């Protein structure tokens, strides 16, 4: 794991690269270049993080060799031939998968059913919809321009093609507009109300969502992919107890391996399980499931609570510094790990800033802002996140320095545009 200055206290990556080099110098070279890029850059992408060597080792373990289509058999059935799986030899992966599920229930202090097999967040959402909807059913979700994810109803994604998706918006200050949600829920009577976001910096009021969903007899689903680590660390209100179905990724603020999970109320368990396998996927990635279990153990440690708290403290200080320098931060601040800089009043685009920052070793991504005037390929904003650099030990004062470095680059771009004119 890299520290704040890019020193790696472990030889794990170097040893891996040396092993790969024996077979493929080309692949080893590319991995080494990416390793150095990550090591030397300030990483501000809100959906990324650095997982531990223990997580990586689990993901690179012999479990990658095992097929285990199906689900763990109940212990009593295991002796009589792995009834829940379509393959033999699953005794240990059965135990592992059950252990992983138990650990995640512990992390979120819940008795919800959990499925740890989804290969990604998108596949978790695909299966979650399948569990409670028929094609053509109505979903009410957060507008993608206002922070929603591709799988929440984009016209180019399965979600927008298979379902009748309508959107609620944010208000003129960038906060989720609960009145708009209520009005549309009453008009549309959706079968599913969905919340969760890829670029929303404020606390989501799950109890209020649940109440509105109940009033129109809709399922309530939360995609907590971005904030799951903050929920686990007690820094964001938990959706458990409010939502019928909850999806997440494990590689963002949770700091685990790349993958997805679905939690649901017990009465939906069978539907969710069969929507993941055999409907959406084949054999589960047991090596990734091992990584998810290690990640859960890490999330249960007191240090993880401290980490989640520092992510939010850092993000508030970072956003505040931009506000002090006169920037427009969407919603005027943040409650979580992310905020959006609205650059609509500059001549350059979000993409221009993303590219210019790349040149000076700062990685972030362009992002649409509410009332976006530019195309999604250009955008008028950038998304800024604190989860990865907090893992590397950055504190408030470090992010304040980065804010000033970004400001220098913004001024340079302003000057270039002025000179062009
Ligand atoms: C809110 C949300 N849901 C789902 C996903 C999809 O996750 P994946 O990239 O693992 O498919 C993302 C990814 O960024 C996300 O932000």
UniProtKB/TrEMBL annotation:
The keyword Cytoplasm applies. The keyword Cytoplasm applies. It holds the Pfam family SHMT. GO terms for biological process: glycine biosynthetic process from serine; methylation; tetrahydrofolate interconversion. Pathway: Amino-acid biosynthesis; glycine biosynthesis; glycine from L-serine: step 1/1; One-carbon metabolism; tetrahydrofolate interconversion. Its cofactor is pyridoxal 5'-phosphate. The modification N6-(pyridoxal phosphate)lysine is found at residue 252. It is an enzyme of class 2 (transferase). Residues 22-405 form the Serine hydroxymethyltransferase-like domain. One of its GO terms (molecular function) is glycine hydroxymethyltransferase activity. It comes from the Bacteria. Keywords: Amino-acid biosynthesis, Cytoplasm, Methyltransferase, One-carbon metabolism, Pyridoxal phosphate, Transferase. (6S)-5,6,7,8-tetrahydrofolate binds at residues 144, 148-150, 266. GO terms for cellular component: cytosol. Its EC number is 2.1.2.1. It catalyses: (6R)-5,10-methylene-5,6,7,8-tetrahydrofolate + glycine + H2O = (6S)-5,6,7,8-tetrahydrofolate + L-serine. It is found in: Cytoplasm. The record marks 251 as: Plays an important role in substrate specificity. InterPro entries: PyrdxlP-dep_Trfase, PyrdxlP-dep_Trfase_major, PyrdxlP-dep_Trfase_small, Ser_HO-MeTrfase, Ser_HO-MeTrfase-like, Ser_HO-MeTrfase_PLP_BS, SHMT-like_dom. Catalyzes the reversible interconversion of serine and glycine with tetrahydrofolate (THF) serving as the one-carbon carrier. This reaction serves as the major source of one-carbon groups required for the biosynthesis of purines, thymidylate, methionine, and other important biomolecules. Also exhibits THF-independent aldolase activity toward beta-hydroxyamino acids, producing glycine and aldehydes, via a retro-aldol mechanism. Thus, is able to catalyze the cleavage of L-allo-threonine. Homodimer. Belongs to the SHMT family. PANTHER family: SERINE HYDROXYMETHYLTRANSFERASE, SERINE HYDROXYMETHYLTRANSFERASE 1. This is Serine hydroxymethyltransferase. It comes from Mogibacterium kristiansenii. The lineage of its organism: Bacteria, Bacillati, Bacillota, Clostridia, Peptostreptococcales. The gene is glyA.
């Amino acid at each position: 794991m890299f520290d704040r200055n890019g020193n790696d206290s472990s030889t794990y990556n170097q040893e891996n690269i040396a092993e790969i080099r024996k077979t493929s110098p080309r692949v080893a070279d590319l991995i080494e270049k990416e390793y150095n890029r990550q090591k030397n850059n300030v990483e501000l992408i809100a959906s990324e993080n650095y997982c531990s060597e223990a997580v990586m080792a689990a993901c690179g373990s012999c479990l990658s060799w095992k097929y285990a289509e199906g689900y763990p058999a109940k212990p009593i059935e295991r002796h009589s031939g792995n009834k829940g799986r379509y393959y033999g030899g699953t005794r240990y992966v059965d135990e592992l998968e059950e252990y992983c599920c138990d650990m995640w229930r512990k992390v979120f202090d819940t008795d919800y059913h959990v499925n740890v097999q989804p290969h990604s967040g998108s596949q978790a959402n695909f299966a979650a919809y399948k569990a409670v909807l028929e094609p053509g059913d109505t979903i009410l979700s957060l507008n993608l321009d206002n922070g929603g994810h591709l799988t929440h109803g984009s016209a180019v994604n399965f979600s927008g093609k298979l379902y009748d998706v309508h959107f609620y918006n944010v208000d003129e200050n960038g906060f989720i507009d609960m009145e708009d949600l209520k009005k549309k829920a009453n008009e549309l009577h959706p079968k599913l109300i969905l919340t969760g976001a890829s670029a929303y910096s404020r606390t989501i009021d799950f109890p209020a969502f649940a109440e509105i969903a109940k009033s129109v007899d809709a399922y309530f689903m939360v995609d907590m992919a971005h904030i799951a680590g903050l929920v686990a660390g007690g820094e964001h209100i938990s959706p458990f107890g409010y939502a019928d179905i909850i999806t997440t990724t494990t590689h963002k603020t949770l700091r685990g391996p790349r993958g997805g999970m679905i939690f649901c109320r017990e009465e939906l368990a069978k539907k969710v399980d069969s929507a993941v396998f055999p409907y959406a996927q084949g054999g589960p990635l047991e090596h990734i499931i091992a990584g998810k279990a290690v990640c859960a153990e890490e999330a249960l440690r007191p240090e993880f609570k401290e980490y989640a708290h520092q992510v939010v403290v850092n993000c508030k200080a970072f956003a505040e510094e931009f506000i002090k320098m006169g920037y427009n931060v969407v919603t005027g601040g943040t409650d979580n790990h992310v905020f959006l800089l609205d650059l609509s009043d500059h001549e350059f685009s979000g993409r221009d800033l993303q590219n210019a920052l790349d040149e000076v070793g700062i990685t972030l991504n362009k992002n649409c802002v509410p009332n976006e005037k530019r195309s999604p390929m250009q955008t008028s904003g950038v998304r800024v996140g604190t989860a990865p650099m907090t893992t590397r030990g950055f504190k408030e004062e470090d992010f304040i320095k980065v804010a000033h470095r970004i400001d220098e680059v913004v001024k340079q771009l302003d000057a270039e545009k002025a000179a062009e004119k």
